[in-house]
Write a structure and sequence with these properties.
Largest sheet of chain B: 6 strands, mixed
Low-confidence stretches of chain B: none
Oligomer: heterodimer
Structural class of chain A: mainly alpha
Strand order of the largest sheet of chain B: 6-7-8-3-9-10
Number of helices of chain A: 16
Helix content of chain A: over 70%
Radius of gyration of chain A: 22 Å
Number of strands of chain A: 2
CATH class of chain A: Mainly Alpha
CATH class of the domain at 262-335 and 420-433 and 452-507 in chain B: Alpha Beta
CATH architecture of the domain at 262-335 and 420-433 and 452-507 in chain B: 3-Layer(aba) Sandwich
Number of helices of chain B: 19
Helix content of chain B: 25-40%
CATH superfamily of the domain at 262-335 and 420-433 and 452-507 in chain B: P-loop containing nucleotide triphosphate hydrolases
Order of helices and strands of chain A: HHHHHHHHHEEHHHHHHH
Distance between the termini of chain B: 45 Å
Shape of chain A: globular
CATH architecture of chain A: Orthogonal Bundle
Structural class of chain B: alpha/beta
Strand content of chain B: 25-35%
Mean pLDDT of chain B: 83
Number of domains of chain A: 1
CATH topology of chain A: ABC transporter involved in vitamin B12 uptake, BtuC
Strand content of chain A: under 5%
Chain lengths: 361, 507
């Protein structure tokens, strides 16, 4: 993502350059070098390759996988994880981690349903319910941010704590699944506009929003916090505010994901979203974002999340038992992390040690 | 006009006096060099100017305005920029992003970053370095972690310049630059001077001072020695001011045992992190000092010898035989012992009893899984008496001891392994004067008994007073070897600061 803004030539252009350049050996060497460069400098490269591989594989196993109907359904089902992963990406880029997304999803889910039902369920009531849900997400993120940025608590533990709190609140509000929202929610959510699924439009709009954030300079500053917090202080960045905002964005995206779940299931469930915290973190990591913070991007996170979902489909269509899904998912995540992490680490470590090296006290 | 003025400034860190009644003033458009020996307080002074450290006493005046306390951010807003040796860049961001971080120009309409102006400003900040970096659009987009350290240093300087400061402090900014880049750096200093910006430069390179400095302030042990016009002095005079008039030698080491001519350790062409082509030999019963300015590779030499840092070497020879010292266990089995100055991090197990602290290395070396506490106790007690340790019970935790006694426990632990070569890495850091003296005595007795010592210390006097021979390090290389008559501070600094000689050695 970062590369694009700088206008570096894409890999394709480089290909043309070599062809005009000379001996075959040289071409191969440069080609290998460029491939390595793509791995280390385009964080989403690995996820993209795995995704294409799985997608082709799925086509072989099940021809109908490519059907328009299937794909639009899939996108709709993937949306919650995609959104949570996007939110998680902000936090991880800033050097944090948000473990509380899973139960926040449930909390927003039940709040939306409960508010709507207690108000009566008219069109205005539905809008109020949506606003209540989004506010909950923002506020929850704000609290996480306070804990991590201002009180300097370790992100993993403090957001794990809030995860339990949100979960408790969700059960307090609605102790078992139930409630009902108008079926129009589902109709709108699953609608297509000139053949394009509504959920895909939301995703594209959100990506445009993220691009806008990038243009405001927010993302660069956030990455600076995650990359070298000492240097960020040195550059007079409002480090705490930047990190709090990243958690609020995570909360907002999680709330949006919760709205998608409400629309899909048309009901409230205080236990929805379990497992999303680790799935979203794995997806972010698969997408090439460094879990230490500072480097990575959103396209990668989307690809990573889709790869996670595709693994399940591959296993399902290959006729293997559902029990294998979890096992395979775990193995593939470890494999991808090992390969991707090793590659990006090599390039980054060199820089970091160079920066840290030397110096009288 | 006086840009910055400090009168009677003092700063203490616990027992240590970093600055004592220091006066300093900086004129407009002046290049002011700040020099002094290791740990004399020049960095503390710079930190006070930058607002990082608040002085205990004294008055500060910035741009004609009296200031009592100042935060780093306030200092930056007043136009004070610092270029540290340890860089503040973000390795994962691009050069352009780093230079413009936090000061991106905005469009009027939506408040978005004005990319074109942003790019132009970044280029403008790097423009002065055009000759030494491949300045182009593509270069600006490179990640900082992908460019070499000297270029990172240049980016750091450009970052400071882009913030349009009125006063810049360079804390050894030229340390990692090569000759051509230093020249460009000088031309920038001159350019800054022309537009009325003042600079404070900390540097150990004497010829730099005479080439470009206007005034030079010499600090010794936290006190102002003098501030003089550079044109009135030469390099030798500056060194003399740094070191002082009288030689403060209280040599404790008696004449080396000349009979001991047997070579214990030979190192041939050692290369590694911060170490470049170091060769030396060590005789039985000898104390060899590793001296020079701080951080010139001395610690790294000790760590590679002890097998805890990777290295490339032609040969390590102990008693004439080529040995493998690639891991700490191997080093220990070849009778090496390493005592770090960072006791808490790499020496004592604070929460464990004194007894365990003493026997742990012995047990590892002799691969003892089962042992009799009673027998070990019998071995430990005389040793503790020998090194004169004050303690309550053997079962007390190491925490209960004073710093000096903790250090003795570390020494005791290694003596249990019966080492032939002791590697000391600033081992008396944070130990009080009395205990330090005892430590010296213990060392001397041990050396008379045939042990050899390689000793790196940030206290120059400690080395001069206690060693038989000093290797002077500069940038990872041995530039000089001091022995006998030449073991004095003036010679040590002359050797450490002689950049011409260092270049000769490098070539």
């Amino acid at each position: 993502m970062r590369r694009n803004s700088i206008g570096q030539p894409s890999i394709l252009k480089k290909h043309k350059k070599w062809r005009s350049k000379g001996s075959k050996m040289k071409i191969n060497k440069q080609k290998a070098k460029a491939w390595m460069h793509s791995f280390t400098h385009k964080p989403y490269f690995l996820a993209l390759i795995i995704l294409i591989f799985f997608f082709i594989l799925l086509g072989f196993i099940e021809r109908r996988y490519y059907s328009l109907y299937n794909l639009t359904t899939k996108i709709r089902l993937w949306m919650p994880l995609l959104l949570v992963t996007l939110g998680q990406t902000f936090v991880i880029l800033g050097g944090g981690l948000d473990m509380s997304v899973s139960t926040l999803l449930a909390l927003v889910n039940v709040i939306v349903v409960q508010v709507m039902m207690s108000l009566g369920g008219g069109p205005w009531h539905q809008i109020i319910a949506i606003i209540a849900g989004l506010t909950t997400g923002l506020f929850a993120g704000f609290l996480n941010g306070l804990l991590v940025a201002h009180l300097r608590l370790p992100p993993l533990i403090s957001t794990y704590g809030t995860q339990i709190v949100w979960g408790g609140l969700a059960l307090r509000i609605m102790h078992q699944s139930g409630g009902e929202v108008p079926f129009t929610w589902y109709n709108v959510y699953s609608a297509t506009i000139i053949g394009i699924p509504f959920s895909l439009i939301i995703l594209v709009l959100l990506m445009l929003g993220i691009h806008f954030l990038k243009r405001t300079g927010y993302l660069v500053k956030l990455k600076a916090c995650g990359g070298n917090i000492h240097g960020a202080y040195e550059s007079v960045l409002p480090v705490n505010a930047l990190r709090v905002k990243s958690y609020m964005l995570s909360g907002l995206f999680t709330a949006l994901a919760a709205l998608c779940i409400v629309a899909e299931t048309v009901t409230g469930n205080p236990l929805s979203g379990s497992g999303y915290e680790l799935e979203s973190i794995s997806a972010v990591a698969l997408g090439g974002t460094s879990l230490a913070g500072g480097a990575g991007g959103f396209i990668g996170s989307i690809l990573g999340a889709i790869v996670l979902k595709l693994i399940n489909d591959v296993i399902f269509f290959a006729g293997l038992g559902v029990n294998y899904q979890v096992l395979a998912q775990g193995l593939i995540i470890i494999l991808a992390l090992a390969v991707g992490g090793q590659l990006t680490k090599q390039s980054q470590k060199r820089g970091v040690t160079m920066l840290r090296g030397g110096g009288e006290q | 006009m006086v840009i910055f003025k400090a009168t009677g400034v003092s700063k203490r860190y616990g027992e240590v006096v970093a600055l004592d009644d220091m006066d300093f003033s900086l004129e407009e458009s002046e290049i002011h060099y700040l020099v002094g020996t290791n740990g004399c307080g020049k960095s503390t002074l710079c930190k006070i100017v930058a607002g990082v450290v608040t002085p205990d006493a004294g008055e500060l005046e910035i741009f004609g305005e009296a200031v009592s306390a100042m935060t780093p951010n306030e200092a930056k807003k007043r136009g004070i920029a610092v270029v540290y040796q340890e860089l503040s860049l973000i390795p994962q961001l691009s050069i352009e992003e780093n230079i413009m971080l936090g000061i991106e120009p905005r469009e009027k309409s939506l408040g978005l970053i004005d990319r074109q102006t942003n790019r132009q400003k970044a280029i403008a900040a790097l423009q002065p370095f055009e000759k030494v970096i491949p300045l182009s659009e593509e270069y600006l987009g490179k990640r900082v972690s992908d460019i070499p350290i000297d270029e990172q240093q240049i980016v750091e300087i450009a970052k400071a310049l882009a913030r349009k400061p009125r006063l810049i402090i360079f804390d050894e900014a030229t340390a990692s630059l090569h000759k051509q880049q230093v020249e460009v750096f000088f031309s920038i200093l001159r350019g800054l001077k022309e537009v009325g910006i003042s600079t404070i430069v900390i540097s150990h390179k004497m010829e730099e001072i005479t080439e470009i400095g206007d005034r030079v302030t010499v600090i010794r042990s936290g006190k102002l020695v003098n501030t003089v016009q550079v044109k009135d002095v030469d390099a030798d005079q500056v060194i003399q001011m740094m070191v002082g008039d009288k030689e403060l030698l209280e040599r404790q080491r008696e004449e080396p045992n000349l009979k001991a001519t047997e070579t214990v350790l030979e190192v041939e062409n050692l290369n590694g992190e911060k170490v470049k082509g170091v060769s030396f030999s060590l005789k039985r019963g000898e104390i060899l000092g590793l001296g020079g300015l701080q951080g010139q590779g001395q610690t790294e030499v000790l760590l590679t010898l002890f097998g805890s840092k990777p290295c490339m070497v032609d040969a390590f020879k102990i008693d004439g035989e080529v040995v493998d010292l690639s891991t700490t266990t191997k080093a220990m089995n070849h009778s090496l012992a390493y005592i770090s100055g960072d006791r808490k991090k790499a020496g004592v197990f604070l929460e464990r009893p004194i007894f365990e602290n003493l026997i742990i290395s012995y047990l590892i070396k002799h691969r003892r899984k089962i042992f009799s506490r009673k027998k070990m106790r019998q071995q430990v007690l005389p040793l503790l008496a020998q090194i004169d340790t004050v303690f309550g019970k053997l079962s007390d935790t190491a925490n209960s001891l004073s710093g000096g006694n903790q250090q003795k426990i570390v020494i005791g632990r290694w003596l249990m392994t019966n080492p032939a070569i002791l590697l000391l890495d600033d081992s008396t850091k944070g130990v009080d004067v009395g205990a330090t003296k005892e430590f010296y005595e213990i060392l001397h007795t041990l050396c008379d008994a045939g042990m050899s010592v390689i000793w790196h210390s940030s206290e120059d006097l400690e080395l001069l007073n206690n060693t038989d021979r000093i290797l002077v390090f500069d940038n990872g290389r041995v530039v000089d070897e001091l022995e006998g008559e030449r073991l004095n501070e003036t010679e040590l600094y002359r050797a450490a600061l002689d950049t011409k000689k260092a270049q000769e050695v490098a070539e």
